[in-house]
Amino acid sequence: MSTTFYPEITKATHSRFLIYRVLGYLLLMLAGIKMIAVLVAVFYHESIFWVFLSSAVFTAILGYALVYKGRFASDMKSRQLFLLTTLSWLSLCLFAAIPFWLIVPDCSFTDAWFETVSAVTTTGSTVFVGLDHMPKGVLFWRAVLNWIGGIGIIVMAIAVLPALKIGGMRLFKTENSDTSDKILPRSSSLSTAIALVYLVLSVCTMLSYYVAGMTGFDAITHGMSTVATGGFANYDASFGQYKSQPHIYWIGSFFMLAAALPFVLFVSMVKGHRQALWRDPQVRAFLSIVLIATLLLTVYQISQNDRNWFDALTHSLFNVVSIITTCGYASEDYTLWGNLAIMLFFYLTFAGACSGSTSGGLKIFRIQLAALLLVKQMKLLIHPKAVWVQKYGHKTVDDQLLGTVLAFCFVYFATIAFLAMALSFYDLDLVTAVTGAATAVANVGPGLGSIIGPAGNFSSLPDGAKWWLSLGMLMGRLEILTLLILFTPSYWRY
Amino acid sequence: MSTTFYPEITKATHSRFLIYRVLGYLLLMLAGIKMIAVLVAVFYHESIFWVFLSSAVFTAILGYALVYKGRFASDMKSRQLFLLTTLSWLSLCLFAAIPFWLIVPDCSFTDAWFETVSAVTTTGSTVFVGLDHMPKGVLFWRAVLNWIGGIGIIVMAIAVLPALKIGGMRLFKTENSDTSDKILPRSSSLSTAIALVYLVLSVCTMLSYYVAGMTGFDAITHGMSTVATGGFANYDASFGQYKSQPHIYWIGSFFMLAAALPFVLFVSMVKGHRQALWRDPQVRAFLSIVLIATLLLTVYQISQNDRNWFDALTHSLFNVVSIITTCGYASEDYTLWGNLAIMLFFYLTFAGACSGSTSGGLKIFRIQLAALLLVKQMKLLIHPKAVWVQKYGHKTVDDQLLGTVLAFCFVYFATIAFLAMALSFYDLDLVTAVTGAATAVANVGPGLGSIIGPAGNFSSLPDGAKWWLSLGMLMGRLEILTLLILFTPSYWRY
Ligand SMILES: [K+]
Ligand SMILES: [K+]
């Protein structure tokens, strides 16, 4: 069963060693990507190539050692996946942070850690200023971390989270999923197909950006951070850089939207189910929200700010899509549009897009299921003895699943509230603390207010706040419970 | 069975007519209270007494007509209680608003409606300025509306909401509750006992205030708005008026806390269960939160603002208690204490105190039950096949009940979010819109920010915003679903 993955397995050992091997492979992959960064730096005649090179060698040696240590390990229990998933993201961040720390001037380890976590979790909040003059190697490194974070998220959402039964992801168990306690070989063919979709989508984005007038380098890096809904741009002005090329905003909006749809449905469409996307209740709701918010802001800008309709529509669409897909680019400082716009972007920060995409946040389907519970409860108030069967699309939603989803909603908002409280200990104002916490946990990128708003930057925050925000980004990316569960005593009692 | 309540019933008619009779009694009671306001105005030689008098006569006539119309009505179905409850609060507000509208100079009907809804729902947000020079009759009217709102809330929480099964109130069904479909005569003796507790508590508060140095008038009116956790004060500075008499803050804190505890437990204590209060899980959590928040703010003020410890403790306690009990007095502008304080008060605004008290908000037990669901879900993630029995105090919490509670939490925050969005259409800033919505739905009183903060006032808001906020206050007081359900088509299909 696991032969395709681990042909070398000859005997089973303690499953803990499998964690070593997986982490080892991860570091080897990271070392490989660092080698690509070496090539980029060399291509642009940047002397920093040696940092990437030596760090790649260091990472590779450690990775190989871990793989060697775990070479005899067999399959593992689903429960250990919590630990493995958390450790994977943590070690990826740790070893990816080294180049930032060594290369960028005045970059403390805190800043390097923040930037890396922000990159790998595809949050896209930045503490770097002067991006316009940053070495190409560093900009590439930021973008490629966004990109591998993006694929990591989808694989996690497809292969790991449903097995962990976190936050209602069970709803998206595919036919390939088996119900045994053995996890790793599950849905390997689906993961491959999805990785392929991710790759194709990335290349399409890059080509479109290039044709639209970006430089080759910008097209490649922005393509990566678009499809990952990561949101790292190569300029301090983010996508404000392209204000004279509005067609770039339309291309960006299109591909951000695509990256925020369930990737499984793309695979279904390729397999012949042409209607898969349009029939999905989550996709419909998501696109409706985007449409309504965009039109509302367009009308608002035309009436309030006396803007021409094309400009209003272009910037409304781009920024709404950017925030709800949790990409986090900004074409301009939308907080200047007015209070209604600020409120709308505040809400969009929490929402997130579709499950099984690269986006973060609460996800539309959870909001829909919570609404489903409400409808059911209201029916029960009127007809107390009736029995109601809730449907989501064609699937029956049992109470157990609803409980999981609502527990997730609760822990999601509780985490944001807790994080905001922690941030206010560093004397950050209400709006900065709350939106900072929300944008971190939802992996969006920009917050609101004068400090971390779309025109701002996270660099001026106190070090402690940066650590809390990094924790928030990681928690958000790990759907919170994966990380939280490691701190319960009963997890370790086995 | 219903003889004690309606000895005159001789034959059953359509149950709709019972709604008339109940509303009629309500208006007769309101007319009676208006007569007390007449006495107050006469006592202070205020010419406005004729307004109260004529409005009392008008209300009494209408009330009598309604009672007469419904004189043959028999008992009603529990479903009709939604309509009856909503109509009761609405008609109370409507007929109580008349004196404000006629007496207060420059008072539009919008302002009169806002102030009345704020009074009757015990929110305590005010649009009146120059309270210090307001006729005593008007100040009395504000306070007494707070007070009858307060008793209305408890009776509703004891006798109506458990029957309606809204938001987990079923947990507090008393032994007196029967399970039949007949509602009104239920728990009448308990309601009487609780009304008595309310009365005794009010008198104690008034006497304490008077002994502490308030004028007789202030002692009576503030006593009423304290025990109702209404929060209307007789001065523009709210309780800042008493900054030279810190013992008044301690007395106020004590009685606000008492009024925010479950009144049923007072009855139990009187009946001999001395430990009833301390053994209640909700009371323990509530007092713990108060303690922690107070100590945190005390230390914060001592260290940050260089305040002496007694002052810091007094004002921390008073304002924390005032906000979490949803009373809403302010002893000073606590938003000047610093960002941490603002954040804390922001959260306290949502929380609310104990169920079955006069307080509003989400209520502590709902937060506890949501946490219970989270703990259960985390256990399920680790041991997927185990069966867990959740306990709250000595009561078993089934999934059905948890669903009700979580649906309530969802609709609570959704209502606040929706209301905040509506407010931002009137160009209110993020903080004003969000805290305005929260303080209305939670029936607290003050919000945050420069406009509606503890040092501010709701008078400068646009008329439309005042109507939305009034709706929010009513929805909060009706535990949202009671009102919402009237807008579903299936409610009316019977
Ligand atoms: K992002
Ligand atoms: K209040």
From TrEMBL, chains A, B:
Residues reported in the UniProt entry to bind K(+): T122, T123, G230, T326, N443, V444
Highest taxon of source: Bacteria
UniProt KW Cell inner membrane keyword: yes
TM region(s), chain numbering: 18-42, 48-69, 81-104, 144-164, 190-212, 248-270, 282-303, 309-329, 336-358, 402-426, 467-487
GO molecular function: metal ion binding; potassium:chloride symporter activity
InterPro entries per record: Cat_transpt, TrkH
Keywords noted in UniProt: Cell inner membrane, Cell membrane, Ion transport, Membrane, Metal-binding, Potassium, Potassium transport, Transmembrane, Transmembrane helix, Transport
PANTHER family hit by this protein: TRK SYSTEM POTASSIUM UPTAKE PROTEIN, TRK SYSTEM POTASSIUM UPTAKE PROTEIN TRKG-RELATED
Protein family per UniProt: Belongs to the TrkH potassium transport family.
Protein name: Trk system potassium uptake protein
